[in-house]
Specification:
Length: about 210
C-alpha cells in the first residue's frame, strides 16, 4: 500500500490539477449554468464514472511496465509534461469558452447528462495525462505490487475529483446570476487555470523518478 507521505503528496497534486478548470469542469459548470445544480451533479456522476473506467486500464497496463522499464516511464513523463503545457496554453487561449456556457438553451434529462459526463470523463485529456504520466511518478520503480498502488492512487484521484467537481457545479448553479453579470470573472478563472497547468507540466518535466 502507498505510504502516508506519498498519499498526502499525491492528494495535494491531485487537488491542484482538479481545481484548475479543464474539459470536465467546463462541462459541469456549463450544465450548472444552463440547467441548475441537479444537472451539475448528474454531470459529476457521469464524469467520475468515465475516469473510473480509465483507472484499472492505466493501473494494470502501466503496472507491468513499472517493473521492467524506467526508460519508458521517462518517455511517458516527458510526453505528459509537454501535453500539460499544451493544455495550459489552450486553456488560456479559450478561457472565454466558459462564457458561452451561459447561453446554452433547453432542458436537460439526468440520464442524458450522465451519459454525456461518462464520455467527457473517458476522453478528458487532462485526466488521461494525469493517470498515464503523473500518477506513475508516485510509485517507485522497485515498489511491490505497482499495479495495486496505481489502482489505489487512481481511485483516490476519482474520489477527490468527484468532491471538487461537485463543489464547482454547486457553486456555479447557485451563482448563475453572479457569473452572468461579470464574464470577466470567468476569463480570469480560465487564465489562472491555464498558468497552473503550464506550471504543473514544467514541474513534471524536471521531477526525477521516485525509486
Amino acid at each position: 500500500m502507498p505510504s502516508t507521505a506519498g498519499v498526502l503528496t499525491f492528494l495535494l497534486t491531485s487537488m491542484i490539477l482538479v481545481l484548475v478548470p479543464g474539459p470536465s469542469v467546463l462541462f459541469i459548470v456549463g450544465r450548472a449554468l444552463a440547467h441548475g445544480r441537479r444537472a451539475a451533479l448528474a454531470s459529476v456522476a457521469g464524469n467520475s464514472t468515465g475516469v473510473a473506467i480509465l483507472v484499472p486500464v492505466v493501473a494494470f497496463g502501466l503496472g507491468a511496465v513499472a517493473e521492467r522499464s524506467a526508460g519508458i516511464f521517462t518517455a511517458i513523463k516527458l510526453v505528459g509534461a509537454a501535453y500539460l503545457v499544451y493544455l495550459g496554453v489552450q486553456t488560456i487561449r479559450h478561457r472565454g469558452d466558459l462564457i458561452a456556457a451561459l447561453g446554452e438553451p433547453g432542458r436537460s434529462a439526468d440520464r442524458r447528462v450522465y451519459l454525456q459526463g461518462v464520455l467527457v470523463g473517458l476522453t478528458n485529456p487532462k485526466a488521461v495525462v494525469f493517470l498515464g504520466a503523473v500518477l506513475p511518478q508516485f510509485v517507485g520503480h522497485a515498489a511491490p505490487n505497482p499495479s495495486t498502488q496505481l489502482l489505489v492512487y487512481g481511485l483516490l484521484f476519482v474520489a477527490m475529483a468527484s468532491v471538487l467537481d461537485s463543489a464547482w457545479g454547486l457553486a456555479a448553479g447557485t451563482a448563475r446570476d453572479w457569473f452572468a453579470t461579470s464574464p470577466a470573472r470567468l476569463r480570469r478563472v480560465g487564465g489562472a487555470g491555464g498558468l497552473m497547468i503550464i506550471g504543473m507540466g514544467l514541474g513534471l518535466a524536471v521531477t526525477g523518478r521516485r525509486d
